[in-house]
Design brief:
By secondary structure, the protein is α+β, with helices and mostly antiparallel strands. 33% of the residues lie in helices and 17% in strands.
Length: 500
């Protein structure tokens, strides 16, 4: 069996001199940088062409399809973003409707704008005492599809950025009974299906199109991902056409070799690799459950590879003054004092992403750091804990400082704040009677820009929506906590319709 990385290494030492792109000519001495110039080539004889694969790359993609139990698989070297764009554009028709989870990545919103689609939003609930989106409920999807029988495409994100997993099999069945197509953004679940501790992947559970980011949770290079297609409902030719349009016409062989090596690893060593990985995850989770004030968030259905640590309810004494201890505070302390870089921080929690490449030493550092921080919080708030609180999500009552035996996030009990959709994003783009207003004053206004915190890149406002008071309050709290709100043209302001 021929693998791309080995073939590239063999070619590098073959003696061939290249009068072709790229311009570094596989000569690392020109820049002196320690980069893989020697295996960075273009589409030359014997190395196939990703956009017209009929040799080495065709076999590699077929191997990936077999490993992931997919009908057809394509390499993505522009990340999951290009897969999502191609899937949505290829499965919908301009001006049509689409059902989409409101916690989808902004690439789904971009596809909606490009195809001038009318989105119908499926709002997840919010897990009590947190800012985390709960799973997408199948019954909500069914109700919205009944109310909108003309919808033929649905897009769901599972697992979420925070590791919450939805019932994809049930949702796929509901969509299929109505003759529809389910696109699954499973970017954060590329490791699913390789051990019983994780859910099966979306290809097995019935999704028609599945997108996986290999680089997020597996040993692969940044920007590497896969798009899978299953069954006969998808117009595969259209999806392929958009892939050819949107992916670079000069795909990186370094990135493609990274994909191929990752798939080879899964094919040859998945059982051993995931066995030890899951054992380590379980050990670390058991120890983190012993935290007294910081809390390891474990929802009803979640991905055990993501550690979500909540600081909700925690306070700390600084210079004789009691202050709220936030997710941002926890993130900064872990980074600056313990040299531990978290994936992201929210107002009340942090996310630590893991993968099979993590070491016992690295995991031990995380546990030790969190235990030490937790101990200081406990010492500082023993007498003050009833006198301070960390406000919960906008629209909920404040959450008192967590008692030692409080169990956080076992079920979804709070409704997500919903913005009212007045115009589609495409319609909003054409509106000109606009002004820029402070983010804190956008409640009740029709906004014409996206506003989001990155990561995770889930829009809090979408062009054409009338912003709810709860969302405006949430934006205000993010700004006050030091988070940078992205997506708007002017820092701290959002474009809004005049008198709208």
């Amino acid at each position: 069996m021929e693998y791309l990385y080995k073939k590239l290494k063999d070619y590098a030492s073959s003696g061939y001199y290249g009068f072709h792109m790229p311009g570094h000519k596989r000569n690392g001495g020109v820049t002196g940088a320690d980069l893989p110039y020697e295996i960075d080539i273009t589409e030359i004889e014997g190395f196939d062409d990703l956009h017209h694969a009929d040799g080495l790359l065709k076999q590699a993609q077929e191997r990936a399809a077999s490993v992931y139990h997919a009908g057809e698989t394509h390499y993505l070297i522009n990340g999951s973003t290009v897969g999502i764009l191609s899937a949505v554009l290829g499965c919908t028709r301009r001006g049509g409707k689409i059902l989409m989870a409101r916690n989808c990545h902004r690439s789904v919103y971009n596809a909606v704008l490009l195809n001038e689609l009318e989105p119908v939003y499926l709002y997840p609930e919010i897990l009590r005492g947190t800012e985390l989106n709960a799973q997408v409920l199948p019954e909500k999807a069914e109700r919205l599809l009944e109310e909108n029988p003309d919808i033929k495409v649905a897009v769901i994100t599972s697992p979420s950025y925070d590791g919450v997993v939805s019932d994809i099999r049930s949702i796929a069945d509901i969509v299929h009974r109505r003759g529809g197509i389910l696109i699954l953004d499973e970017a954060h679940g590329a490791h699913f299906g390789f051990h019983p501790a994780f859910p099966e992947n979306g290809n097995v559970l019935g999704a028609d199109v599945v997108i996986h980011s290999l680089h997020k949770t597996l040993p692969s290079l940044t920007q590497t991902a896969l798009l899978h297609m299953n069954g006969q409902a998808v117009d595969r030719k259209r999806v392929r056409r958009y892939l050819h349009m949107l992916q670079s016409s000069s795909p990186s062989y370094v990135l493609m070799a990274g994909i191929d090596e990752c798939v080879r690893l899964l094919e040859e060593r998945a059982e051993d690799m995931f066995g030890s990985y899951v054992q380590l995850l379980r050990q670390i989770r058991e120890r983190l459950r012993a935290l007294r004030y910081l809390k390891l968030v474990e929802t009803d259905h979640y991905d055990i590879s993501k550690f979500v640590v909540s600081a909700a309810g925690c306070v700390i004494r600084e210079k004789g003054e009691i202050k709220r201890f936030t997710g941002k505070d926890l993130y900064c302390i872990l980074k600056e004092k313990y040299l531990l870089q978290m994936e992201m921080a929210a107002a009340s929690y942090v996310v630590a992403m893991t993968s099979p490449a993590d070491t016992e030493e690295g995991m031990e550092c995380l546990v030790s750091a969190l235990t030490e921080i937790d101990g200081k919080l406990a010492k500082n708030i023993k007498s003050e804990r009833n006198d301070a609180y960390l406000p919960g999500r906008a629209g909920q009552r404040p959450t008192a400082a967590a008692p030692e035996d409080e169990q956080i996030c076992t079920s979804a009990q709070a409704e997500a704040p919903e913005n009212e959709q007045i115009y589609t994003p495409a319609q909003a783009e054409a509106l000109e009677n606009a002004e820029y207003i402070p983010l804190s004053e956008c409640a009740g206004r029709v906004v014409l820009e996206y506003a989001y915190i990155y990561p995770p890149g889930i829009p809090l406002t979408v062009p054409g929506e009338k912003v709810s008071a709860e969302t405006a309050e949430q934006l205000k709290k993010y700004e006050a906590a030091g988070f940078r709100v992205e997506g708007t043209e002017l820092r701290g302001k959002v474009k809004a319709l005049v008198n709208g």
